């Protein structure tokens, strides 16, 4: 696969970038160098290597979802700008 100047122009247009002809040539060369380097990975023998998304094993670190007592209503409404009948009172959004 090869990146052409036309490809660079297309991506620059999508990103709303204005590039000079020299920059287009430079970026095309740099992107082709990156692709050439990445192609070296195709030569690696990966038989027996498990696919991974992370280098380290991950475990769920969330606590168990167990019912527990709620905060007292007075404590919940303490910082409310306005309350009425034990509920938050907010300005009307619809008329």
Summed up, what is this model?
36% of the residues lie in helices and 4% in strands.
User: How far is the first residue's CA from the last residue's CA?
Assistant: 60 Å
Helix content percent band = 25-40%
- Order of secondary-structure elements: HHHEE
**How is the biggest beta sheet arranged?**
2 strands, antiparallel
Strand order of the largest sheet: 1-2
Q: Average pLDDT value? A: 91
Structural class, by secondary structure, is: mainly alpha
Q: Helical region count?
A: 3
Strand residue percentage = under 5%
Structure explained in plain terms:
This protein is mainly α and 95 residues long. It is built from three helices and two strands; from the N terminus they run αααββ. It has helices at 5-14, 21-39, 73-77; strands at residues 83-84, 87-88. A two-stranded antiparallel sheet has the order 1-2. α1 (5-14) packs across α2. The model has no long low-confidence stretch (mean pLDDT 91).
